[in-house]
Amino acid sequence: MLEHEFTKVIFKILEDSFGDKANDIYLRSPLLQYLNSETRAASKDSKSRKSNGNLFALYALVLDYRNHGYYEKEGYSEQYEGARFTDLKKVANSLPGGDKLQNHAFNHRLNQKFMKLYQDCPYQPIIRNLDTKRYWINENLINVEYNEKIYNISKEVLTIIKNFIDVVRAEFESFIAYTTKLASIVNSEPEIVVEFILKQLAPTSDARTFEIVSYAILKNHYKNQHIYWGWDIDKLEKENLHLYKTGRTNANDGGIDFVMKPLGRFFQVTETLDFKKYFLDIDKVQRFPISFVVKTNMSHEDMRKVIRENAIKSYKVKSVVERYMEAVEEIINIDDLTSILTKLIDSGNVKSVLDEIILQSRLEFNYEEE
Questions:
Q1: DSSP 8-class letter at 21
Q2: d(CA 149, CA 143)
Q3: Mean pLDDT across the stretch 62-71?
Q4: CA 276 – CA 116 distance, rounded (Å)
Q5: Which of 118, 221, 348, 366 has the most CB atoms lying inside 10 A of its own CB?
């Protein structure tokens, strides 16, 4: 069984409800096991990305199920007309960090991930009627059979998800509070600020903060570089490079993470060396070159070697792989980011980096109003 820091919380909730049957019910429930897998990101120093869309969708559907009283009566699948997407989305959007959630988790992402993890399970969590546009939670996953008795886990599912959201929210609020405190000492004690930033670049750092800190470093790195360009060779304009962050780190929207103006460079942040991830990103932009910011200490040469060799094992055709590899414009690893940060520190730009981290963190964690 997968065990992490939040596993203890899950079992405490189950034991409060089911006593000494908690472990047996867990082992017979793919849905509870899925929740345990999906909540790894609550663990300290977890490398899992805190992307809560699937959990928010599950929460909304199970809450709808309970609100209609089907946890203690029959006829859910046969009699209930199903929940409307607008109602489910409203619930999901009301959860901390769920204000930007759209339809992807409801329509396919939750089912896809669940079925990938539990291929032997004949049920998928969300049932959807494409004609009526109504949704149901799959009751076969909510009712767990043990010793010829059915145990409904809907209340426990909601409690687990709510606890996870609270843990993550508290962590984010602590992060923002600490970075704000650092802003008051950045001039008097810059070494403390530098130590904090470097910690966010570690291989074991949180995926979301790594992306935010990477952006802050690269934005400040490029902003003092410039090019000359124009429509007429006699009328060239000088313009500084500007890096834009295109969305939220937990959006899971399939977009590109950073875009540079005026060069039109694309940047994608990742923590994996799975060639499928790289090639999928390249396909999104029709093999337009992409620079990858990777949360690893591995050298550029070793990363390219691993990606290429694994791709060749799968594709077999070397020429196809090479066309993809040519689209990997640049690889930026932790050592590169650390080196860039050192130069920014030496030039007195550490405050600008911290200010950007604070700004992006507030946007990321829904503090826009401040």
A1: G
A2: 10
A3: 96
A4: 16
A5: 221
Chain mean position to CA 179: 21
**Strands 237-240 vs 258-261: parallel, antiparallel or unpaired:** unpaired
**What's the rounded Cα separation, in Å, for the pair 108 and 92?**
16
Q: Tell me the pairing of strands 290-294 and 266-270.
A: parallel
203/259 Cα distance (integer angstroms)? 24
Averaged over 236-242, what is the pLDDT? 94
**pLDDT of 168:** 84
What SS3 class is residue 307?
helix
Structure tokens given for 229: 């360009």
Give the DSSP H or E segment for 55: helix 53-67
Is 362 within 8 Å of 176 (Cβ atoms)? Answer: yes
Query: In 72-230, which ranges are E strands?
Result: 83-84, 126-129, 134-137, 143-146, 149-152, 226-229
pLDDT at 104: 84
Place of tokens 């767990």: 144
The two structure tokens encoding residue 21: 């049957």
Backbone phi and psi for residue 327, each to the nearest 5 degrees, phi listed first: -85, -10
Count of Cβ atoms closer than 10 Å to residue 297 Cβ: 13
Cβ atoms of residues 249 and 212 within 8 Å: yes
Q: Report how far residue 59's alpha carbon sits from residue 39's, in angstroms, rounded to the nearest whole number.
A: 13
118-144: per-residue pLDDT in tens? Answer: 999 999 999 999 999 999 999 999 999
What per-residue confidence (pLDDT) applies to 252?
46
Question: Residue 83 — φ and ψ, nearest 5°?
Answer: -85, 145
Give, rounded to a whole angstrom, the gap between the first and last alpha carbons of the chain. 42
Q: Which residue from 1, 67, 356, 43 is spatially nearest to 214, judged by alpha carbons?
A: 356
Cβ-Cβ contacts under 8 Å for 185 (sequence gap 6 or more): 192, 193
Segment 166-225, tens digit of pLDDT: 998 888 888 889 999 999 999 999 999 999 999 999 998 888 889 999 999 999 999 989
**How confident is the prediction for the chain on average, in pLDDT?**
90
Report CA dihedral (73, 75, 79, 84) to the nearest 10 degrees: 60
Question: Is the pLDDT reported for residue 81 higher than 90?
Answer: yes
pLDDT of residue 364: 76
Please, which residues bridge with residue 84 across strands? 134
